[in-house]
Structure formats: C-alpha cells, structure tokens
Amino acid sequence: MRALDRSKFHKVVPLNAARVFDNKHISKVRSQLERSKDALQQDRLGSVHSDPDSERAKSGKKCILLRPEVAIKQTSLSHQPRGHADGDAVRTPWLYSPTLSELVAQETIAVVPFNLELNYDYWTYHDIISAILPEDEQGEIPSGFSQVGHVAHLNLRDEYLKHKHLIAEVLMDKNPGVRTVINKIDDVGEENEFRTFRYEVLAGPDDMNVMISEENCTFKFDYSKVYWNSRLNTEHRRLVSIFREGEAVCDVMAGIGPFAVPAGKKGIFVWANDLNPDSYVSLEDAVQRNKVAEYVRPFNEDGRTYIRSATARLAQTEHEVAIKSKTGRKKDEPGVKPQVLRTVKQPKTFQHFVLNLPASAITFLPSFVGLYPTSVRQHLPANFSMPLVHVYCFSTKSADNLSEGFAICEEISRQLGYEMKPGKIDSEDDNGKDGAGAVEIWDVRDVAPKKRMFCATFRVPEAVAIREV
C-alpha cells in the first residue's frame, strides 16, 4: 500500500449473539453471560449491539455477542416460543453452557447468527502498520514518538523513510491529540546553538505553535524555535524538589522555564536566563501566564558571563515577597483585604546553579572560578555558604556508571582547576571549604544505545570561588 486506503481494513467476522427479547433484561443477561464466559469480551469492543434484524434494530432491540466457540445448531423440527419472530430457530439446549441453555429455556433470549463488522477505526496502530509494511520490514515496527502539544515528533530509521507518510497518517489517526506529525532530519543542536533541529512535516499542517502543561504549569511556544523535551519531565520534577522555599536559584540555560516556573510556584526565587531570544520570549510569557513574576526573573544573556554577572547583581539586589492570607472572596467582590502574614526576602547569594546544556555545560564551569571577588563579598553576609552546581552532561553508559563518574569528575576538575571526585557532597555547614570536592552523579536517561545523560552535582569549593582571576 503506497497511499492509505482505510476501506481495506473492513472485515466481517461471523459470530453468534444472544437476542434479548426485552431490553430491561439486557444488563442482567450480560452479567450472567460474562460470568459463564459465554459473552464475547474483547478489547475496544463492546458486547452489546443492535439486533442483527433491521426491523428489530429500528425498535431498539439489542443482542449480546457470544464467543466464537459457542456452538450453534438449528433443529429441523422446532417450535416457536412466545414472542419470537417468525423464522427464529430454536437452538438445541444441550449444545450450550448451562447458563445459556437456561436463558434459552426461559425464553429470555434466542441464539442467532451475527455478522460483526470491523472497520479501520477498530484496528490499532500496530495492527494497521503490520498489515501495511512488508513482512521482511516488520522486525522493529516504528511506534515510539514524542508528543509536544499537538505535535508528534518521530525519529524514523532509514529503512522506514519510504513509508514515512503512511506511518505518520496512521499515527495521527490513532492518537486524537495529534494534529501534526514531523520527522527530525538532523541531530538537536546541529542547525544552531539553540538546540533546535530541522524537520519535515509528514502529516497535518505545519503548525509548531504548541501549548503544554507540566507540573501544573502551562507553557506556550513555537516548537521549531526553542528546545523542549517531554522525556525530561521526571528530571525537572526531581531537581525542583531539591530546592527549598525562599532559596535563590540561578538557571543559566533556562530554556522556556521547565525548572524555573515550577520552582517559582514553590516560592523559590529564580533568575532564569537563556541565550535564545525566542526562548526568552516564551519564558517571559510562561512567567506571566503562571503568575510567578514575584519569584522568577527572565534574562537573555550569554551564560558564560551571566554566571558571574547575576551573582554580582543579586548581591546588591533588595527584593521581598509578601505572603498574604486568602480572603475566600473573588477578586471583583468587595470585602476585607488580605492580610500580610509574613514576608520572604530574596537571599543575597544563589544556593543553586542549574546548567542544563548537556552537550557543553561543563565548559561553562570556569565561570565559577573567582565567582566571589572582594567587590562581591563585601555585600554578602559573613560565613555565607557556597552554592551547589547541577551541571548536565553526556557520557558513555555501563552497568554501574563507575567509569563514567570518574570521567565526569576528571573533566570537572580540569575546568575548575581543583580536584573533584565521586562521593557524597559535604553539608552546607562545611561551606565548601578545602577538602570538599565531592561530586554526586545522577543517571538521568539514555539518549542513544551507547550514550547516557547525567547530572553532576557538587558544591563549589571555597578555594575556587574566591580565587583571584
């Protein structure tokens, strides 16, 4: 099949059905036949259907489909029970299960032939693709895809590209929330530094303006211009759960805000930055749309310089949020104004830095060398704590990730000019002083057969943060 012909998926299956003479008995009869295993119980297919006789169907009469194994045999000499239409054959009771026989004897039902018609809507994506593709190409039928709003994003292997439009059309048919199907035609980041990718539309309109919801936050963006990966939802949730209310977080490569906006909803102060102007516009929209402007500040700067500049600006910024009581009234209703219960002051230092650019984020770490020069420290409280850095990266994959952990730490050490090793992070009270240098490695997800994404978390050593540069 070169073009999808939905009519080819029409099939008639000869079955038998229990004709229920009085509709008020349908529910009871169905329950009895299901218990006795006589009723047909099939995924995506109800057992109650209109009577196969068109005149009876017009009057609303129903029947219950029976399993194909239920035997049917007409007697040559049969009497017509009360209420039966002329020509209805009485079935031989001993061919049925006791339940079916009893219902027939009670004249509650009659067993009649039924042609079950199945059309394209009944069959699953896998059923249809299996029927379309040649047998020698069914070793690994393409079924996985990422969905971003109404867009389904495929990564088709070369051998399936000749069937790409068929695959996309069936996928769209079988996933009601999908209106556009695209296929990625290069790796993320190959086109430019903003982690976007070139694509081709396989089905539906070329409409990449999407709206999604994650962690009770709504994001609206042009998927062709910004980076988004729905498979990172679990990682977004994990990291945000580490942040505590009232802390300050510097999200250096914030994208459209999957870390920043949910954190803002938790009462966490986030300075969120992204180099991509389109990401910045969508981030601004997300901040307003989710009403977190008191906590989340968007920026559009280069991440390498932003790490230091944001640290210096935060040290001299005064900002607080008033936590108010709820009045129980609607905004437009007159009444008692909410009372200020407490205020939360934005810290002078960041407790966390997030660097979510796994292909190159580790190369941004030299920006932490000399993070707190004298000009910044003079604005900070005594004995302030060194921040935690959560830097994402790619590495190889193994059963225990041990070699990968050492390789990641070796690269972090090289970038910081300070020895870092896998281990448990020192406590906040230890203040990141000499002798710390521990890195906790978190396995995020597989991205390819031999490639894995990790998050390396460490506290910036004080010797690194105050080093003269």
Main attributes of the structure:
469 residues; alpha/beta; GMP Synthetase, Chain A, domain 3; Rossmann fold; 3 domains; 8-stranded mixed sheet; 4-stranded antiparallel sheet; 23% helix; elongated
Task: Set down the secondary structure blueprint.
Layout: E1 11-20, H1 26-35, E2 48-50, H2 54-58, E3 62-66, H3 98-105, E4 109-118, H4 125-132, E5 146-148, E6 151-154, H5 164-174, E7 180-184, E8 199-203, E9 209-214, E10 217-222, H6 233-242, E11 248-251, H7 260-265, E12 269-273, H8 277-289, E13 296-299, H9 303-315, E14 320-324, E15 340-345, E16 352-355, H10 374-377, E17 388-395, H11 402-416, E18 421-422, E19 438-448, E20 451-459, H12 462-465
Parallel strand pairs: 6-7, 11-12, 11-16, 12-13, 16-17, 18-19
Antiparallel strand pairs: 1-3, 1-4, 2-3, 5-6, 7-8, 9-10, 14-15, 17-20, 19-20
Summary?
The protein has about 475 residues and is α/β, with parallel strands linked by helices. It has helices at about 25-35, 55-60, 100-105, 125-130, 165-175, 235-240, 260-265, 275-290, 305-315, 375, 400-415, 460-465; strands at about 10-20, 50, 60-65, 110-120, 145-150, 150-155, 180-185, 200-205, 210-215, 215-220, 250, 270-275, 295-300, 320-325, 340-345, 350-355, 390-395, 420, 440-450, 450-460.
